[in-house]
Design a protein that fits this description.
Layout: E1 7-14, E2 20-27, E3 30-34, E4 45-48, E5 52-55, E6 62-64, E7 68-69
Antiparallel strand pairs: 1-2, 1-6, 1-7, 2-3, 4-5
The structure holds zinc ion.
């Protein structure tokens, strides 16, 4: 059976401090968040009222980069 799964990823970073907030992954119609590894250059992505997705460190808005296609590989 041919694998036609569409898989895309976008980097999420903080607009203010520039920390890595993880990756947003889309597989077909479902989205999920891949948390950034715990490094000094990373912070947790949090959801804030009225702001939406934000940086857990400084509270700045999360910037979601362009979706990039990830090569599909057979399991
Ligand atoms: Zn920040």
């Amino acid at each position: 059976m041919e694998d036609t799964m569409l898989r895309e990823r976008a980097e999420v970073s903080c607009l203010l401090c520039g920390r890595n907030l993880g990756l947003l992954e889309r597989i077909d119609e479902s989205m999920r968040l891949i948390e950034a590894p715990e490094t000094p250059n990373a912070a947790q992505l949090v959801r804030r009222p009225r702001v939406g997705l934000a940086c857990g460190r400084c509270g700045g808005r999360a910037l979601i980069g362009p979706m990039e296609r990830v090569a599909a590989y057979a399991a």
